[in-house]
Write a structure and sequence with these properties.
Pfam family, one: Nitroreductase
Order of helices and strands: HHEHHHEHHEHEHH
Domain Nitroreductase: 7-177
CATH architecture: 3-Layer(aba) Sandwich
InterPro entries: Nitroreductase, Nitroreductase-like
Helix content: 25-40%
Strand order of the largest sheet: 1-2-4-3
CATH class: Alpha Beta
Number of domains: 1
Strand content: 5-15%
Family: Belongs to the nitroreductase family.
Keywords: Oxidoreductase
């Protein structure tokens, strides 16, 4: 599939079939794609936790689900819980700070502990890896969903999975096959056109 068709055909799946298997070799191929994302200073500050076995996934859902949602039940949650593979994407901020304290990156005379990061590129770079993984899933014939974990549950998830301190959970990719098409915001909100979000020469200026 060519890139343009791949990008335009990608969408999020919110209800997965519970009876499907995603082979490990496909997961490894997708993670290899994610590992080829660009990164500041070639820091490559990302880590991925793959959950395949039912008890692994249940451990995640138990830690990730706020008590109120667990008590009342949630249709979205039920659909996504059926996904046979979950991939958690973590960003490693300390890896970037350590990389930019090295001689070829450090600013002359600057204190390595006083680094200015107006954009947290450990999050940006990890997110680019996630996008590559999502596109790869589409090409491999898989359905996928990228979703976030409530902020209140980040610590519980990391603790349950033995994730070291200093790593930030960017989000989770669910992989599998769609059971039923469920509409999301893309069905109720129009896609912005290129003309609406492109500015030529200055913000708000049209193409001459």
């Amino acid at each position: 599939m060519d890139l343009a068709r791949l990008v335009r055909g990608r969408r999020m799946t919110r209800r997965f079939r519970p009876d499907t298997v995603v082979p490990d070799d496909i997961v490894l191929d997708l993670l290899d794609l994610a590992g080829r994302a660009p990164s500041a200073g070639f820091s490559q500050g990302w880590e991925y936790v793959v959950l395949r076995a039912p008890h692994e996934r249940e451990l995640f859902w138990a830690a990730a689900t706020p008590p109120a949602a667990a008590a009342t039940g949630d249709d979205w949650l039920a659909g996504v819980r059926a996904a046979p593979v979950l991939v958690l994407a973590y960003a490693d901020e300390p890896a970037y700070r350590a990389r930019y304290a090295e001689p070829d990156k450090a600013r002359p005379g600057a204190d390595p502990s006083d680094q200015d990061w107006p954009v947290p590129y450990w999050l940006t770079d990890t997110a680019m890896g996630v996008m590559l993984l999502l596109l790869g899933a589409r090409e491999a014939g898989l359905d996928a969903l990228f979703f976030g974990v409530p902020g209140s549950q980040h610590g519980a998830v990391s603790k349950a999975l033995g994730v070291p301190d200093g790593l930030a959970l960017v989000g989770v990719i669910a992989l599998g096959h769609e059971e039923q098409r469920v509409g999301g915001s893309a069905r109720t909100r129009p896609r912005r056109t290129v003309e609406q979000f492109t500015h030529w020469g200055a913000f708000g200026a049209p193409r001459a």
